[in-house]
Please model this.
Amino acid sequence: MVVKLQDLDLSAKRVLIRQDLNVPISDGRIRSDSRILASIPTIKTVLEAGAGVILMSHLGRPVEGQPESAFSLAPVADYLSSALDQNVALVKDYLEVIPVVDPGQVVLLENVRFNLGEKANDETLAKRYASFCDVFVMDAFGTAHRAQASTHGVARFSASACAGPLLTMELDALSRALEKPASPTVAVVGGAKVSTKLNVLETLSQRVDVLVPGGGIANTFIAALGFSVGRSLYEPDLVDAAKKLIENTDSGAAQIALPQDVKVAREFDQGAPALVREISKVQQEDFILDVGPKTAESYAKLMHSAGTVVWNGPVGVFEFENFGAGTRALGQAIAESNAFSLAGGGDTLAAVEQYQLAENISYISTGGGAFLEFLEGKELPAVAVLNRVG
Ligand code: AMP
Model:
């Protein structure tokens, strides 16, 4: 069992919280504060329990060992100072001097990715982080699939470690969708390439009733049925893997729902007009860039009859206006459905935002890579380590 924050006595303790404060910043201004807002309740809970708080996070992708002001967490420290109505100092010299916090105080450590050894999960660095605190709280789901010094090593060496409320909430929602799902269960796996999501497709095909491959992934399945995909993105090397998934349906694996019709373009271009074709009628010159109206309608029926829906990846090049209708129809059907719905992954979240679906999706996972690895059934290292310490 993972130890949770509420299981521990935090009074007068020094509590180090790994958060995901990786917000978009340009010209020193925070462009989206949603991750900071999500993190504030955890900070308040720990403060109210009588602890001193040390926060740490990564920001962007600086070159390790080369601090650069563009990747400084200074704007986040300022934001937190106003949001919490108390000074939140940014601490830069924490590799030389141990940061001190009294109960009720909050400090933020400068970007952990400035530190050599962070990504490699260096033991000395992890021990250094661990020395700052009595309790380590892991609350950054989006980084939980990475074993790094600030997500994994620190938990091994700190006196006590636990999962924070945000992490716990993500794990509970994902487990609910995957372990005791209301049936029928439907999984949509869209996006560009089968190769990047083969494990997810294989795992989900053993777990759900209907699997819906979408986008470039569907193109490889269409090729596996023996149809031409013209000039579309598809992966010849993975046609056999797709065939296997289609054939496994006979031995009890998920039914594979493929498009009946598609929208094609003659050029891979933002402004190219969309032409609707049956999947058996795709021409040599065509790029399949979206599903057609019949398929969009069948998606809607499928979603409306589902008990649980897991959604990762668009079913078309939704960045092009003429080829977003399939992803929009799918997303709207998921949002209208009474099913417990779970969406996650970078492009999926962009589509959820673009089509304003967030309010009616049961749970939106903040993790991209972590979400996919959870769907694959992998143990997330930064969560697994919390099972061994406490
Ligand atoms: P992924 O990172 O695998 O989730 O892929 C997301 C990307 O797949 C988006 O940028 C989409 O534009 C792209 N995509 C979706 N459908 C297609 C398609 N039919 N052809 C080419 N790219 C696609």
